[in-house]
Amino acid sequence: MIADFVLTKRLKTPDIHFPVKLHREKQQIFSFEKFEPFTGWDQDLAEALDSGGSDMEMERGIIQVQEHSVQHKAKMWKIALNVSGKGDSLSPWDGVLDLPEQTLIHNRSQQLIDQLGASEEEQSDMVSDIESVITFYCKSRNITFTPELSWPHLLKPLLGLQLPRSDLYNCFYAVMNKYIPRDCVPNGRPFHLYRLLLQYHEPELCSFLDTKKITPDSYAINWLGSLFSSHCLPDVTQALWDSYLQQADPFLIFFLMLVMLVNGDSKEDIISKFEMLEAFPSLLGAEDIEDLFSLAQYYQSKTPLSLRKMNQNLFGSSLVALKEEDTDLSQALCLPVSVPEILQANQLQQDGVRFFVVDCRPAEQYNAGHLSTAFHLDSDLMLQNPSEFALSVKSLLETQKQSLESGSIASGEHLCFMGSGREEEDMYMNMVLAHFLQKNKEYVSIAKGGFMALQQHLVDMNVEGLDSSYVHWIVSTSGSHSSLSSADGESLSSPGDSKGVKSLVNKMTFALKSKSVNVKEKMISFIENTSTPVDRISFNLPWPEKVIPDRHVSSSDRVGKPYRGVKPVFSIGDEEEYDTDEIDSSSMSDDDRKEIVNIQTWINKPDVKHHIPCNEVKETGHMFPSHLLITATHMYCLREIASRKGFAYIQSRQALNSVVKITSKKKHPELITFKFGSNNSAGVEISAVERYLIPNAGDATKVIKQQIMKVLDALESS
Q1: Which of 463, 498, 520 is at the close of a domain?
Q2: How confident is the model at residue 432 (pLDDT cuts 50, 70, 90)?
Q3: Residue 105's domain spans which residues?
């Protein structure tokens, strides 16, 4: 019998600062406090479901139920799967069961019904339903049903809802489309991704399983393919799916699988009872679901967002072909992280994943230019001078520890290694990565594309030209920009470099190359001066060529004709300059900046005509979740307060008649720049510039333009 479980610490709040493990204890199986996953089912919910509403935000607020009828649960799941009121997809089908693998489908359907212990009459109808649903799904999508597929298990919890066949198919299709990843087959891509996730959080266990040749698909293929319904009891599966559908996050299954494995047993028992490993979910009880999800959400909070952003095509109905290098996760040394996430993660916020970036390029490349917060670890030393490499690694870990304690902007619990981005040059970096992984270091990742990707990203985001302040993410520690020639390790750089991040990385670079200093002591002292950002320097590098596509005249282009004989007050077009010398959204007083408002209250104000969720983009590249509110005469920017959910600062108030230009980037049309000012005898005087990253930017700028036109009409007629 597989080992039993008990939770050592119970999670009650989302603010978790420690990993929670389950340990073995006799005669207890996930013995937790009584969990009531949903609040009482009342008349309000019944009325909401009967109304047929489909607003998921509203439904999630009231869908939290525990005891309710099968009919109500069926309505709840159909709403969560967005199939409520959907027609009969089976109606065009002739109902003929004639696939080459039809016998296999029938036998699998019969096996499932035999497990449920239904009456003979019910069994016949249920087998027919399952066989019809699977057959039509295969025919309509030109898929062959194979023995390893878990589709019958996926139908098991849906059968408990007593749905008509048309609804059964619609729900099955929705679950398959949204929650079952593509390539869920032996050696499939989802299992390589899951192994990288396991390695990221539990490298020792991952290494142990690798040495024993226990691959994720050997025990988890049915976990993933059936959302645990293959092994959980029906009531447990329904409780688990209640929470899972409420979260509406397809990637959550990977973290639930991680918890299941990590807390399932000791390493010794895993290998001695390997044949029972797949059965771990059978030990779950309905009362354990809350803790299972709490642990999963803990691991999720400690995982880079790149995991899901780089693998979004695992789910959904998109048939877009994938690049081979993006799909072959089996060759990945560790979890890749995108450059934008690295840059954004260490900006201001204290919560979430923060990276300690380790630049593994040769010294001359690092000195020519590097990310301002990166620690240098010359990977060539691993073979050329192993003792110095060992000292550098020790210094790296000590620096990381001290930076975390001091709150440095360069600090991060998660190590992210950066190479050049050229495969032939990154061979040694891969050896360094393997070294850290062999030491079972958790939270190890690699910057996807290396320094070349960083350069390209800054070129793309850098609103026209190397003079933009965004490029100051990069600093140089060689040549005329920064000298490191002093014997005692003091940098001889410009006065602006004497403290802060640049001072830290410059001194670290020197210290790691100097044999006359105590590196450990130096590292500790360096960290003390990194709590405040400083101005960074520009330098010349062979940046990737920026291609500006040819632009042809369109009938929709503005041609400069004055609006009804009035001199143009604003224009909308492609942005050709960054105007870094212009004032950056500073047209309000300190009191205005400090004003705090309830976001929803302001959105609901009767004079607010349009609400546009967005991110405010500063010239430094920092982004802040914000909301643009458009009234009849003004545009307000509310910047969300991270520490106070639902509240925001009034970041700016701008009159619509002061908008003189609205521009967008050719390569990034969602990056919108607003310029505010006034006309005088000398021309247009710019008073403020604000930039926002706006989803569906075309629609947003259209409604703003229309409102500006109304203001101008009113001014003209007055």
Answers
A1: 463
A2: very high
A3: 101-178
